[in-house]
Amino acid sequence: xxxxxxxxxxxxxxxxxxxxxxxxxxxxxxxxxxxxxxxxxxxxxxxxxxxxxxxxxxxxxxxxxxxxxxxxxxxxxxxxxxxxxxxxxxxxxxxxxx
Length: 98
Hints:
98 residues; mainly alpha; 2 helices; elongated; transmembrane helix; membrane; Integral membrane protein; transmembrane
């Protein structure tokens, strides 16, 4: 794609921001960096270090995903409540105008 503005980008290319996936990916990159440095001899990382780093990273990823989900739900609820300014539809089953 040649430098398109956000409005010109086709919808199949756009996607929602997923902070949980970002944090999980950064956790995996951190582990890869730690153990590649250990393999090259730059520093020593104990074998059990993977457990706290992975557990903490996945916990943070879950917290970020839950926070994003909560924000999206609240924003959708606020938008829906501001759009309901008209009279409600009939609940009797008939939509005929009398």
